[in-house]
């Protein structure tokens, strides 16, 4: 003879008790053998079978997560090797014209990107009421001073790269004594740049670019450069 609890509070109390006393069925094996849970096909299955199936599903989920992490690690290692070459190249840059000519192509190589854009303007513009559109749209991001990455809308892609096919981006804040701006790296693959991207790597890369920017002469004129 079986009975069914209709009081949800009582059911919650039972569930909480079993959760706290995980050895309950070890101490009451007769209760365990009497348990059968409905299967999706309608047939009954034992609690042990249900637990084994859940463990297999969890294992598959963890394996998929591990595979993703390993793929990200391999990508970051390859990028780190290219970053080393980029650093050596940037060390030879001394003026803004050279930076604007060299940096986009080098960044595109490091990230294997479909598009790169650099937008620079005077740091004082962050404090003024009359701002360029780039300053207005990215003011909060620039003040946060941390890299970001993820999906991008077609309108944002068009604004950043003059290219509406870009679907994911890395955006780095550029800052020196006299100038601020953004370095945007885009991909047509909507999952190429994502939230699980190695932020430590992006921050180090951002620091290198900003160090080079600090050592270049700034004319005071906003500068832009695109590669697509």
What does this entry look like structurally?
- It is a single chain.
- The protein is α+β, with helices and mostly antiparallel strands and 228 residues long.
- The chain has a domain at 94-227: 2-Layer Sandwich (Beta-Lactamase), CATH 3.30.450.
- 52% of the residues lie in helices and 18% in strands.
- The chain contains eight helices and seven strands.
- The protein has a five-stranded antiparallel β-sheet with strand order 4-5-6-3-7, with helices on both faces. A two-stranded antiparallel sheet has the order 1-2.
- Strand 5 (168-175) and strand 6 (179-187) form a beta hairpin.
- The longest helix is centred in the first third of the chain and has 44 residues, at 47-90.
- The chain is elongated, with a radius of gyration of 28 Å.
- The mean pLDDT is 79.
List keywords for this structure.
single chain, 228 residues, alpha+beta, Beta-Lactamase
Question: What is the strand and helix layout of this fold?
Answer:
Blueprint: H1 8-20, H2 24-27, H3 29-34, E1 36-38, E2 44-46, H4 47-90, H5 96-111, E3 115-122, H6 133-144, E4 148-151, H7 154-161, E5 168-175, E6 179-187, H8 199-214, E7 223-227
Antiparallel strand pairs: 1-2, 3-6, 3-7, 4-5, 5-6
């Amino acid at each position: 003879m079986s009975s069914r609890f209709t009081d949800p509070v009582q059911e919650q109390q039972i569930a909480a008790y079993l959760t706290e006393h995980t050895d309950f069925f070890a101490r009451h094996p007769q209760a365990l053998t009497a348990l059968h849970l409905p299967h999706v096909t309608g047939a009954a299955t034992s609690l042990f079978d249900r637990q084994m199936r859940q463990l297999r599903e969890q294992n598959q989920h963890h394996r998929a997560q591990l595979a993703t992490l390993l793929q990200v690690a391999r990508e970051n290692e390859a990028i780190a090797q290219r970053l080393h070459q980029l650093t050596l190249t940037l060390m030879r840059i001394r003026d803004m014209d050279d930076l604007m000519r060299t940096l986009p192509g080098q960044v595109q190589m490091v990230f294997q990107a479909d598009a790169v854009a650099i937008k620079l303007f005077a740091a004082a513009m962050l404090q003024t009421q009359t701002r360029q559109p780039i300053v207005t749209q990215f003011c909060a991001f620039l003040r946060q001073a941390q890299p970001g990455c993820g999906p991008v809308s077609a309108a944002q892609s068009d604004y950043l790269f003059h290219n509406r096919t870009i679907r994911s981006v890395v955006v780095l804040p550029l800052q020196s004594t006299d100038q601020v701006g953004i370095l945007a790296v885009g991909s047509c693959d909507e999952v190429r740049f994502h939230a699980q991207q190695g932020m430590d790597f992006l921050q180090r890369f951002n620091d290198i670019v900003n160090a080079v920017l600090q050592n270049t002469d700034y004319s005071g004129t906003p500068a832009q450069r695109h590669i697509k």
